[in-house]
Design brief:
This protein is an alpha/beta fold. The chain has ten helices and 14 strands.
Length: 299
């Protein structure tokens, strides 16, 4: 298990990370999110042992992260970090050797991953000769080459088309199913919702949202029901617990006073035979992010 325990990081008088805590268990995909400058990169660097926290601790399976542990970590940075004059093979041999792998093991894993990503023909091509999307694939491969116990992915889908995003998703889920701990960071909240059960959203170094996405959505649940069918607006307005009914195109948006009112509305509506839609709206993670981060900005 990765344990981030009350870490704080100062750069001179500037507090980049402020008393941050979270855990990631084997097989979990954890979302570490935030606007630019929120403290994510500093947090990543402390997790990898590149920076020492001013206070607090980071441990992997109970051990402080140092160079004896970093061979078990893979990291895909948001920025391109490839050596463009090297070939794909040379680049992966370089990264794999840094992780303590033998040449034979590196090349066997490389051949497998190149085939998975449909780019076997680029093995002896220089990085600079590849498209941005294929460079991103190579950067991803270098993060996976050592089958890391902990995998950190910062904007992994940058520059990818929808088909290649699906390839990346398959690989990420496969890694999690094998027991890897994965920290996933993205500005695309729809991607976060696909993968992560737990998240932390950072702002100015602090966690402003922290917990399971299901619990967070329950806390921020919209009190709206969308109804489509053969029912009169006036009838909906008479139901106990209904505050307001708005007609939108061919459906009604019913605002209720609490989630407990859903059952009352459903019982009343279900008496009608031609009801084709009854949906209790769930807030998207993007809406919650914007609302909570915006609220924190105003303080």
């Amino acid at each position: 298990m990765l344990k981030v325990d009350k870490i704080t990081k100062y750069y001179d008088d500037f507090k980049a990370v402020d008393n941050l805590s979270f855990t990631v268990k084997p097989g979990e995909i954890f979302g570490l999110l935030g606007v630019n400058g929120a403290g994510k990169t500093t947090t990543f660097r402390m997790i990898m042992g590149l920076l020492e926290p001013s206070s607090g601790n980071v441990t992997l399976d109970g051990k402080k992260i140092d160079y004896s542990v970093t061979d078990q970590i893979g990291f895909l940075t948001e920025e391109r970090s490839l050596l463009t004059k090297m070939t794909v093979k040379e680049q992966c041999l370089f990264y794999g050797t840094l992780k303590g792998m033998s040449d034979n093991d590196i090349l066997a894993k490389l051949d497998n991953l190149l085939e998975r990503f449909g780019i076997s023909e680029y093995k002896d091509k220089k990085i600079k000769e590849l498209s941005k999307g294929n460079q991103q694939k190579i950067q991803f491969i270098t993060a996976l080459i050592n089958d890391p116990k902990l995998l950190i992915l910062d904007e992994p889908f940058s520059g990818l088309d929808p088909i290649n995003i699906e390839l990346f998703k398959e690989m990420i889920l496969e890694m999690a199913n094998k027991g890897s701990m994965i920290i996933f960071s993205s500005h695309q909240m729809n991607h976060v919702e696909l993968f992560c059960k737990k998240i932390v959203v950072m702002l100015r170094g602090k966690a402003v949202i922290d917990g399971y996405i299901s619990d967070i959505k329950e806390q921020y649940r919209k009190k709206n029901i969308l109804i489509k069918g053969d029912i009169a607006k006036s009838e909906l307005e008479k139901i106990d617990g209904v505050l307001e009914v708005t007609e939108k195109s061919d459906e009604f948006e019913v605002k209720i006073e609490s989630i407990d009112s859903v059952e009352k509305v459903f019982k009343s509506v279900s008496k009608h035979k031609n009801i084709t839609k009854f949906v209790v709206e769930e807030p998207s993670l993007n809406e919650i992010f914007v609302a909570k981060v915006g609220e924190a900005y105003e303080k």
